[in-house]
Structures are given as C-alpha cells and as structure tokens.
Design brief:
Layout: E1 8-16, E2 22-26, E3 29-33, E4 41-49, E5 54-63, H1 89-108, E6 128-136, E7 141-147, E8 154-156, H2 165-180, E9 195-202, E10 206-212, H3 220-230, E11 235-240, E12 254-257, E13 263-264, E14 269-270, H4 282-295, E15 302-306, H5 312-320, E16 326-330, H6 333-345, E17 352-356, H7 359-364, H8 385-388, E18 405-409, H9 418-421, E19 428-433, H10 436-446, E20 450-458, E21 468-475
Parallel strand pairs: 3-5, 10-11, 15-16, 15-18, 16-17, 18-19
Antiparallel strand pairs: 1-2, 1-4, 2-3, 4-5, 6-7, 6-9, 7-8, 9-10, 11-12, 13-14, 19-21, 20-21
C-alpha cells in the first residue's frame, strides 16, 4: 500500500487489534487507528507506516457506533493508562473475549469455547498507583501524572477514575508539599533532580513510597504530617534509585514512618512490601483464586506451583485446599525467603514446601520420561542418600508408577520457557496468564500432551485492553 505519513484515509473499521484499536483495511492493508470502533466509518491521518501495516489517528467519525460512549475521565486520549473508555462495558468484554479466542486460534490452532470475561467492577478498582513527577509546562510547578502512551511525556492529573478517592488526596498532598518546599524533579535527559516517582498501594491502609535520585528526602517530616492528616495508619518509605534507567523502584525500600501492618488479602492477612507483586484488582484476584482452587478441589495428588514469587497465590490455594500438599518453586532468593516466612506465619509450612530453584531445572528432576527432555539424564546412583531419603525428594523418574501431581503455572508476561512445558507430565494443569499471545504459544506446546478443558477470561483491568485468563488442562489418555 502506497501510504506516507500525513495522508488522510477514509474507511470502515472492520475489526479490533490486540490493544483495542480499530482496524481499517484498504485493499487488504491493515491500518490501526486507536479510539475507532468496529463498524464505524472514520477519516484518519496516517502517523506511521511499516511494510506490513500502518498506524493512524482519528480525524473525524462519520458514522459513530451505538457502543460509543462519553469517556468518564477528562484525561482520556492523552493519558496512556486507558484504551477503551469510549466503548460500552458489554463491548469491552466482547473485545477481550475475542482477543483470547483469536490468539488461541492464530498461535495455537485451538478452537476453544471462550466465554465473556468475568467482570466484577468498572471503576475505582485499582489498589496501586505509580506516578512520575514532572514540571507542569513552563510554570515549573511540580505535578504528578501518567505517561502518554509509548512516550515518557507526563500528562499532569489530579484524579483517576480507576482509583478511589484516596489517589486524588494523595496527589494533592504530595504536589502541594513538593511545590511549597521547592523540591526538585528528576530530569531523564540530565539525570539531575531529586523526585522520580510516587508509588502507593491502598489496601486496609495506605503505603506511600517516594522514589528519589539521592539518599535523603528533604522536608520529609512535613510530607509525613500532611499524609497523616488525610490517611489513618499511613506508612511512608523512600526508595533510592540513582541509576539512569527507566526502572521505577531502586533495589531497596526504607521505612521512614509508621509500622508495617497486615493487610486483608482474601483468604488471609499479611504484610505487603512496596516491592511485592499483588494484583491491582482485589475482587477479580479473589475470583481467579477461587476458580483455581475449585479446579483442584477434587484432586487427591500433590500440587506443584511454578513462578510462585513471594507466595501470595501459594497461600491462597493452601488455605482454600486444606488437604493439599503444595511444592512452590521460585528462582529469586529474596522472594523465596519472603514466601517461606509467609507460610510460617500462616502455619502452612507443614503442607507447603518452598524451593528456590529454576523452574525448568526443578521439573527436570521430576521427569519420568527422559525422552521428553534431553537435559533430564539424572543417574539416581549419583544422588546422595540424604537427598533420596528426604520426605521432600520428588524423584518420580525412578518410581515404578508416576505419582499423581497437578501443576499451577502463573508465569510473567513473556510466558514459560519451552523446557518447562516439556519437562514433566501432570494429571492437571492450571495456567494463569496475563498475555493471550504468550498463553497461546505455550498452549500449542502443551496441547501435544494435554486437552484444554476450559478457558475463562477475567477482566482484571476494565477500561483497558488487558485481559487475564485461566486455563484448565488435563492429561490426554495415552
């Protein structure tokens, strides 16, 4: 297609892209247009051209969709936090269902029955916010905001409908303090200035982390007093990040006010560190955990969980499945140590074994069929007696009968390594994914040995194009 930047095109939106943008096809050539809705007739300006596709922006909507609604947020379209506020709730769910369904067909050749996503809230669902500091134009007034999509230009804001009223109060307190005390803001180009980000999480109480390009926060006492006046039980941390990178937090956080308190996490309470991963939508998080537990409620074997992190999912499942024994594997040592401490605090250490290891290496020790993994050539005679006699030894590859085990996968966005997917056989697999494309890629490999029993999307992030998915698989009859 002979297009150049600046061209104005007109066409009917025939589909949605994976990020919720509208797709116009001219002679079969796809043009991705954010904020356009399937079925609409639009005029669009070309902003970027590639060999296989182009991108554009809406100039005029000639025939609007009946599902087009007025966005609730005045920053929508400038702030990069939301993709779909202009679309009705029902159509948002249809888009996300189709995103999962299309990914499974395209990347795994799976024709799965995908229902509409479970959606439990529309607004004020996020329990965490991360906001970069910036100067507001030439005024040099300190502001907080979100980045524009695919940029590091900050859109100053005072309110976000995805968060509760607590976020608005936090923004007001922090910016008022910074401006009153003339605290400098970090500049990515010069690497000078102090204030980088505010990272806050509201559960039962609020925790606030000020990320700074230095080792000391001036006028910290004044900030703390202002936060105390608005939030009962607030805790305040600083995180030093002096590296010239785009990573938000530094290596560590230091508590400078308050005491860490246990927060309600569904089936239990626990202290949540500012650096701990926790799903931002508590209601949907609990629904996912309930479904995962229900999928294994009648399973009478052992459960192995990979990519277990600090143990939050592990603990939820252990409490929901009081008869199950779980082995949780996490490669990052500090997360592993936190998980061990959590299991001990909840009295679960007798049923949960935490192992610090690479997922593929751990599963290699479980594999019965060496032909499925060339790396899995372990000679039992070379193992020390203290290993094979341990109650935690899981050397199933040497047993006459392969033990019954279920596997829980909750990998990062990139999905699982192929060696993990081919390393061992399980009766059931529960796969929790935040990326339909990597999920589909992994299911293509697993489908050699497993049947897909069910696929359930969850709308963890309403108003955005993101979707979580829980897939239940069972071992094929050989």
């Amino acid at each position: 297609m002979d297009l150049i930047v600046g061209d104005i095109i007109q066409g009917t939106v025939s589909d949605f892209g994976s990020d919720g943008e509208g797709v116009i096809k001219l002679d079969g050539f796809p043009i991705f247009v954010p904020y356009a809705i399937e079925g609409e007739e639009v005029r669009a300006r070309i902003t970027f051209v590639k060999k296989a596709c182009a991108f554009g922006e809406v100039v005029e909507i000639l025939a609007p969709s009946p599902d087009r609604i007025k966005p609730l947020c005045p920053y929508f379209g400038r702030c990069g936090g939301c993709d779909l506020q202009h679309i009705s709730s029902h159509l948002q769910r249809e888009i996300k269902r189709d995103t999962v369904r299309v990914a499974l067909k395209k990347f795994a050749n799976l024709e799965a029955d995908v229902p509409l996503p479970v959606r439990l809230n529309d607004w004020e669902y996020r329990n965490k916010i991360s906001l970069p500091f910036a100067y507001n134009g030439r005024s040099k007034r300190v502001s907080l905001g979100f980045y524009e999509k695919r940029s590091h230009k900050v859109v100053p804001l005072k309110w976000c409908p995805l968060h509760g009223d607590w976020a608005s109060k936090l923004i007001e307190v922090v910016t008022t303090w910074a401006n009153a005390n003339e605290v400098s803001v970090y500049d990515e180009s010069t690497h000078k200035g102090l204030l980088r980000h505010i990272v806050a999480r509201m559960l039962d109480t609020l925790s606030v982390t000020v990320v700074i390009n230095g080792s000391r926060l001036p006028r910290a006492a004044e900030l703390i007093e202002s936060l105390k006046a608005k939030f009962d039980g607030v805790t305040v941390y600083i995180s030093e990040n002096t590296r010239p990178n785009n990573v938000i937090m530094g290596d560590d956080v230091k508590l400078i006010y308050g005491s860490e308190k246990k927060q309600n996490l569904g089936a239990f309470k626990a202290v949540v560190s500012p650096k701990s991963f926790l799903q931002v939508n508590s209601k949907v998080r609990d629904a996912i955990y309930d479904m995962a537990a229900n999928a294994l409620s009648d399973f009478d074997g052992d459960i192995i969980e990979l990519y277990s992190g600090v143990g939050l999912l592990t603990a939820q499942l252990a409490l929901r499945l009081p008869k199950s024994k779980i082995t949780a594997v996490e490669i990052e040592e500090s997360s592993h140590n936190n998980a061990v401490a959590l299991m001990q605090s909840l009295g679960l250490h007798d049923r949960v074994k935490n192992i610090c290891d690479d997922a593929a290496h751990f599963l290699c020790s479980l594999s019965k069929e060496n032909t499925r993994s060339k790396e899995c050539s372990i000679d039992k005679s070379k193992l020390d007696d203290s290993i094979t006699s341990s109650p935690y030894y899981l050397g199933g590859m040497f047993d006459d009968e392969f033990p019954k085990r279920a596997l829980i996968l909750d990998p990062p966005r990139r999905g699982c390594d192929e060696s993990v997917l081919r390393a061992a056989a399980f009766e059931r697999i529960v796969y929790i994914s935040c990326n339909p494309q990597s999920l589909a890629r992994d299911l293509k490999i697993l489908s050699d040995s497993y049947d897909v029993v069910s696929v359930t999307p969850f709308d963890m992030f309403p108003q955005t194009a993101n979707v979580e998915t829980l897939v239940l698989l069972s071992k094929k009859n050989q």
